[in-house]
Input
Amino acid sequence: MVRGARQVGKTWLIRDLAHLQNLRLLEFNFEKRPDLISLFSSNDPKEILVNISAFIDSLLSSGATSQTDQEYPKLSFAFLTG
Output
């Protein structure tokens, strides 16, 4: 999760880093989808990953859209620490 002031390059930085590292990026926009905030209700990173995985699995199993399969063919998560 990245937090900071508006218009300072947070989104660009993360997208560029994912691109440079050849990683898939899974973005959650809470302004567009406030219902997704509940996925991050825990302070435990493992529980957050379980919540995200369950959300993605529900999208895939419900056949929400064919685009979903293209967007999330295989998910892997990486934590950047410093």
User: Anything to note?
Assistant: The chain has one domain: 10-71. Residues 17 and 53 are 22 Å apart (CA to CA). Confidence is low (pLDDT under 50) at residues 65-70, 72-82.
